[in-house]
Amino acid sequence: MSEETCDESPLATDAELRLVVAARVACTEAEGPGRRFAVWVQGCSLRCPGCCNPEFFAREGGESIAVTALVDELRVARDVHGLAGLTVLGGEPSEQPAAVAALCLAARELGLGTIVFTGRTHAELQALPEMRPLLAAVDTLVDGRFDARRREPADGRRWIGSTNQQIVHLTPRHADPALWRGRNHVELQIDAAGRLTAHGAPDLLRQILRSMS
């Protein structure tokens, strides 16, 4: 009796990975240094009070997208917009670690820098073996739970929500402090379907949306 074995290659495994995405934009300068592809994941069990994206807390909702399809979008966006990198936010990226790691690794292979915003600290992630591939694929981690009582001042670090959060450079790619200084801003974009999306500095965004209502 012969026994057949089936060896799964890493590529085959990655082809099955899916990421539940709450939102994404192909090109933004409001979510990290330079022009970036930004992905907001769906689902967060941390639920920090005052979070700017409470609609992304629930695990239900969002769109389940194959990582390979997101990589195809990323490759096109890189070529069209001259992207510098990928930013993954949430929701909570560490709650979908395998898919986020695969997406970040693919971004690296496309020559792009990777930034992940997470409510968990670097130390918390280091203590979890399943997070090792994610940490290995990220250039910069912005970590820690958002604390609405300790908001980052307007003249503080760009893109950071509260003063307790850390910028952890796992590679030198985004380590220049000058990249993290400057004024935050908001972007309004109209997608191919004619839908208006808004993202960027939460407090400024709230002011703009109130003025439009």
UniProtKB/TrEMBL annotation:
The keyword Repressor does not apply. The lineage of its organism: Bacteria, Pseudomonadati, Myxococcota, Polyangia, Nannocystales. Gene3D superfamilies: Aldolase class I (3.20.20.70). Keywords: 4Fe-4S, Iron, Iron-sulfur, Metal-binding, S-adenosyl-L-methionine. It comes from Nannocystis radixulma. Its cofactor is [4Fe-4S] cluster. This is 4Fe-4S single cluster domain-containing protein.
